[in-house]
Amino acid sequence: MLMQDKVVMVAGVGSGMGRHIALAAAREGADVVLAARTAAQLDEVAKEVGALGRRALTVPCDLTDPATAERLATAALEEFGRVDAMVYNALAMPPIEGFGTVPLEALSTAFDANVLAALRLTRQLIPALAENKGSVVMVGSMVQRFSEVSMGPYKLIKTALHVTAQNLAAEYGPLGVRFNTVVPGQIWGDTLRGYFGYLAQQRGDVTVEDIYNEVAAKINLRRLPEEDEVADAVLFLISDLARAVTGQALDVNGGEYHH
Fold it and tell me: 1 in a domain, yes or no?
């Protein structure tokens, strides 16, 4: 098993990607630390982890709070005595607005809540990760790969996360710690299904399946990646299969675009 008896922290666990990442790690033999705002959601994922025969520590917290990083790292080490990998999947959505009009205060707040929050947590975990030659994966977005007027703040955050991972790879590579980014394309799950439903309703003469087929027709594999497939890519990057991979971005998009 790829992660047998290792400990994986997932920062940002909801019903979507965070859940799939945690369960993928547990299926491969890892115990998991689950961090997010909603305690009930964490408890549900913890039950699923337990059904797979692994342990889960739930830590309800606000990752934008500077005090959270130390508390989360301490809780993980007190419970398990080690942390082998951390996946940063948390997102405080920034304003969807162009750089020419977005309030700079809001942009600054979004940068702190996302990029600096990820860096704060990572810094707290460095000693434990170095002890076990561990790995960090930042979850990016296809928005990094193109420019769309209203998505500037979101692109800034996701690109900054990748740059952060690259520099950390250079800084802590000598200690054996690896840092990478996974860059999903459009992910077929509840959120996108709901959006396609909205588009179908607006057009009035098509179904969700029609919208899906229109989008998939432009993708090399003629289908959209699903959440568990992105989770598998994350699992690869934190596992020893990627032991010589650091400072990289792995695009998971079915061939929607090439980078």
Answer: no
* Count of structural domains within the chain: 2
Position 203 scores a pLDDT of 93
**The two structure tokens encoding residue 177:** 């710690």
Q: Is residue 176 domain-shared with residue 194, that is, in the same domain? A: no
Question: What are 100-133's pLDDT values in tens digits?
Answer: 999 999 999 999 999 999 999 999 999 999 999 9
In sequence order, the 6+-apart residues with CB closer than 8 A to the CB of 105 are none
Asked if 211 and 247 sit in the same domain, the reply is no
Q: Based on the domain organization, do 73 and 181 belong to the same domain?
A: yes
The 10 Å Cβ neighbour count of residue 136 is 28
Average pLDDT rounded to a whole number, residues 13-39: 95
Would you list the DSSP string of 28-97?
TT-EEEEEES-HHHHHHHHHHHHHTT--EEEEE--TTSTTHHHHHHHHHHHHHS---EEEE----PPP-S
CATH classification at residue 36: 3.40.50.720
Q: Can you give the residue range of the structural domain that contains 110?
A: 7-186+225-252
d(CA 27, CA 236): 13
**Closest of 75, 58, 78, 154 to residue 115, by C-alpha:** 154
Query: In this model, does residue 57 exceed pLDDT 90?
Result: yes
pTM value surpassing 0.70? yes
Average pLDDT over residues 167-196: 96
Relative to beta strand 7-11, strand 85-88 is parallel
Question: What's the pLDDT at 143?
Answer: 93
